[in-house]
Write a structure and sequence with these properties.
The chain is of the alpha/beta class. The protein has 10 helices and 11 strands. Strands 4-5-6-7-9-8 form a 6-stranded mixed β-sheet, covered by helices on one side. Strands 3-2-1-10-11 form a 5-stranded mixed β-sheet, with no helix packed on it. It binds fe (ii) ion (FE2).
């Protein structure tokens, strides 16, 4: 049939070709010759900072925060657009501004309409840690797990626990992800702790994931070189307390050169940064704040199995720039949260 059709096409038999298309006997898609097969497309979101029924937001101290209604509208629009394009959505924490019930409910009213299998999430300091007593951290961590239950994934591997973190997920096509909880009670700074660092080391060295492109998702700035928040040159607790151990584990993995890429994804600093230099061989994506209007809302990226990547498209959202961004360092020179 196909040989006859080809002959007819060569003879100018376009009418018959159209019939075959319409009948579904011929089907093909346009192939981009530059397309690499082993890739995964991700939408990266962070620092939504939903204020719920409150009118005051932490982000308003240093910038312009979106209202709850604006966050719900923008988030629904963003997901509606990108869930058709990407394989997974990764959210790097600070869903809420204070970890309050009404703030989770406002965010989840949008997320609960989505398939949780396509999401990977971790908590941020504003969800669990920015409160000056340990009990608050415990209460808020339980609340995070309750609201995110469908979006979290238990891992049945050494050093894992029923506490969700760290969790490991096979994403398919030669990609695997580890989700870490970097929040530290009573602090805006982060800490992974020995148990999670051991699990990270295991994830990067076990034969089970050898050769895969490994993705590390956490809230805090993985390298902590830039003491910049929301575009200000101000001190902010944007580092991991155990960043030396974390970076040593990453560098050791890169030096082993076992194939497959390594990508670290974090939020927290409210400033978009794509960094390939701090740890040669590793991609570090610092995701901008979705709840702020200072810059883009997200990063959309295609990762390739060999460690390379390309940004999918520019998505600015409702961006505004204010003088405060430029001159804020003179107003808040030593902001701590
Ligand atoms: Fe944060």
């Amino acid at each position: 049939m196909l040989c006859r059709s080809y002959a007819n096409i060569c003879d100018g038999g376009w009418t018959e070709l159209c019939v075959l298309f319409k009948s579904g006997l011929i089907n093909f898609r346009m192939v981009d010759v530059t397309e690499k097969i082993d890739s995964i497309k991700l939408l990266l979101i962070s620092d939504i900072h939903c204020v719920g029924s409150r009118t005051f937001a932490f982000s308003r101290i240093v910038g312009e925060a979106k209202s709850t209604e604006q966050i719900q509208k923008d988030l629904a629009e963003l997901l509606g657009r990108f869930l058709k394009i990407v394989d997974y959505v990764l959210i790097a924490g600070d869903f809420t501004d204070n970890g309050r019930t009404d703030q989770y409910e406002a965010v989840m009213s949008v997320l609960d309409r989505c398939d949780p299998e396509r999401f990977c999430v971790v908590p941020g300091n504003h969800d669990t840690a920015n409160f000056n007593n340990l009990e608050s951290w415990n209460v808020r961590m339980r609340r995070f797990k309750k609201y995110m239950r469908e979006f979290l994934h238990e891992t049945n591997t050494p050093e894992s626990s029923k506490e969700y973190f760290p969790y490991i997920r096979e994403l398919g096509r030669g990609f695997a992800l580890i989700g870490l909880d970097s929040t530290l009670a009573r602090s805006a700074m982060g800490q992974l702790g020995m148990r999670q660092l051991d699990m990270l080391r295991w994830f990067l060295t076990t034969a089970e994931y050898k050769g895969k492109h490994k993705i590390i998702l956490l809230h805090h700035d993985a390298t902590g070189n830039k003491k910049i928040f929301n575009g200000f040159e101000i001190y902010y607790g944007n580092v991991l307390k155990d960043k030396e151990e974390f970076v040593d584990i990453i560098k050791a993995h890169v030096e082993r050169n076992e194939g497959g890429g390594l990508t670290i994804i974090n939020g927290h600093t409210h400033l978009k940064l794509i960094d390939k230099k701090s740890i040669p061989g590793a991609n570090i994506f610092t995701v901008p704040s979705f709840g702020s209007r200072f810059e883009e809302d997200c990063i959309a990226v295609e990762l390739f199995q060999d460690g390379t990547f390309r940004e999918l498209e520019y998505y600015a959202g409702n961006v505004r720039t204010r003088l405060l961004k430029k001159y804020g360092k003179f107003v808040f020179p030593h902001t701590h949260t």
